[in-house]
Each structure stands twice: as C-alpha cells, then as structure tokens.
Amino acid sequence: MQFLYKGFRQNGNHRCYSFDAIEEDQPAKVCVIWVDLSLLTKYQVALQGGPEFCLQLLRGAALEGESGLDQFREYHAGDSDFASIVSERVARAAALAAKRPPRRFVRRPPASSHLRGVGYPAAAGKPQPEPVAPAKKPQKSR
User: Fold this and answer.
1) What is the pLDDT of residues 59-108, one digit of tens each?
2) Cα 81 to Cα 11, 60, 61, 72, 118, distances in angstroms
3) What is the C-alpha separation between 20 and 3, in angstroms, rounded?
4) Angle (deg, nearest 10), helices 50-64 and 83-98
5) Are the C-beta atoms of 25 and 15 separated by less than 8 Å?
6) What are the CB-based long-range contacts (under 8 Å, 24+) for 58-61?
7) CA–CA–CA angle 33, 39, 44 (5° rounding)
8) Going by C-beta distance under 8 Å and a sequence separation of 6 or more, which residues neighbour residue 51?
9) From CA 111, how far away is CA 44, in angstroms rounded?
10) Are 8 and 17 in contact (CB under 8 A)?
C-alpha cells in the first residue's frame, strides 16, 4: 500500500490533509485526516510536519489491514494519536542521556615547548621561564 499526499485545506483552526491510498490493481481510495492546529502546537509538531504525522497514522492503519484503513476515510485526529510522537521523543531523549559524552584529551606541551607554563598559574617561589623571542630569518644577499 502506498499513500500519495494530495494537499491540505484549512478551515479555521483545523487542517484537512488529503491522501490517496493506492494498492495494486485497485482504484485509489481517498483518506482525509482533520487535525486541530492547537494539538500540533501542544505536542510541538511543526505545521510542515502535519503531513508526516498523518502519513504515520495511515501507515499504522495499513498494517492492520483494510478494516484499519476504513476509519481514515474521514478521520479527526485526537490526543491519543499523538502518543506515538510523545513516546518516540521520550525514547530519543533516553538514548541521548545514556550516551556518554566524548572524552576530551588535553595533552600538556613538552618541556622544550615555548608554550610550557602558558595558561597555568605561577607556582609560589618558582622562577618563571623568560619568553623566548622568535628567531629572525637570515636575509639573503643579492
């Protein structure tokens, strides 16, 4: 089963998303899903994500078979339809929290480096090394 997005209409605070359900050797069936825009705001779904949300609903119904898809001839989405989005976000946040942060490896400069001691507080009673001026390049004679 494939779904072809045909577009949307807006009626006040509701959007009506239209899809064609296409199956081999069968005529296309029109599926219409009405979504209240306040629900999209409540569950932090962008307006551009509305068709994707409806497509998820249709794909889930198609897995149930023909009887599951029949209810989407004219369907009004409610709070319970957004449960999959909420659970997906919770799972993604848990996976991100479980992921360990990358280890920052900071290597101290070698003793011969001109950067040795830069950025570290001066130790009490220890003389600080004098900064070394960069060596001048010899000029070529013409």
Assistant:
1) 999 988 777 888 889 999 999 999 888 888 899 988 888 887 777 777 77
2) 20, 11, 12, 12, 59
3) 6
4) 100
5) no
6) 58/3, 58/19, 58/21, 58/31, 58/33, 59/3, 60/84
7) 115
8) 5, 8, 17
9) 55
10) yes
Distance (Å, rounded) from C-alpha 6 to C-alpha 90?
A: 31
pTM above 0.85, yes or no: no
To the nearest 10°, the Cα dihedral for 32, 38, 42, 48? Answer: 50
Q: How far apart are CA 28 and CA 129, in angstroms?
A: 82
Token pair recorded at residue 65: 């078979």
**Encoded tokens for 59:** 């794909």
Check: CB of residue 18 under 8 Å from CB of residue 6: yes
